[in-house]
Amino acid sequence: MLAWSVVTLAAVVLAIWAAAYAWLFSQEDYAPKPGTLAYYVGMSSLVRHAPVANAAGAPDYFGSVGDGDKAPRSEVSYAVSPGSVDDAYASLDAYLQSRGFQPRPAEAAGMVAAALADGEELVRHAEYLSGSGELVVLAVSRTADPADGYRITLTHWD
């Protein structure tokens, strides 16, 4: 009886997981909230565990399953005050290097700037590459309203 219950429970969990993946693939782009199934299934563990040091509010998450030649990506973005932007950036830099990502010459400044919201200005960005070829871009942008400070965005293509 216990073995049957375990098998049934495993089948239900597997069906829910498969349904979540199917839903994500049907969405292509999604903005999950932390703690939701889409967050755990769709966001890379690198982005889910990224420190959001000195965040001035809740972070925003974005994901894309990719299609064609567009790679899947996970992203976290959050506002920081002008006085804490350097510490937040350093925290993410240390995190990425501790996870095996190494800085590489920056190539994607135009792509990063094109993805900014209207009125934002790219002020700093760095690129990191893992041993398996995964790319991460860490960017800092100045918000349209200087009183709002800066926005830090970590994007992981996996």
Task: Please provide a written account of the structure.
The protein is α+β, with helices and mostly antiparallel strands and 158 residues long. Strand 5 (121-129) and strand 6 form a beta hairpin. It is 35% helix and 27% strand. The model has no long low-confidence stretch (mean pLDDT 84).
Structural descriptors:
158 residues; 7 strands; elongated
Mean pLDDT score: 84
Radius of gyration, rounded? 18 Å
N- to C-terminal distance:
42 Å
Shape: elongated
Q: Treating each run of at least 4 consecutive H or I residues as one helix, how many helices?
A: 5
Biggest β-sheet strands, sense, barrel: 7 strands, antiparallel
Determine the oligomeric state from the structure: single chain
Q: H/E order of the elements?
A: HEHHEEHEHEEE
The main sheet orders its strands as: 1-2-3-7-6-5-4
> What class would the helix/strand composition place it in?
alpha+beta
Low-confidence stretches: none
Q: What is the beta-strand fraction?
A: 25-35%
According to DSSP, the number of beta strands is 7
**Range of helix content:** 25-40%
Spell out the blueprint of helices and strands.
Layout: H1 2-27, E1 29-30, H2 37-42, H3 45-48, E2 60-64, E3 73-80, H4 85-98, E4 102-104, H5 109-114, E5 121-129, E6 135-142, E7 150-157
Question: What's the short version?
Answer:
The chain is an alpha+beta fold and 158 residues long. It has helices spanning 2-27, 37-42, 45-48, 85-98, 109-114; strands spanning 29-30, 60-64, 73-80, 102-104, 121-129, 135-142, 150-157.
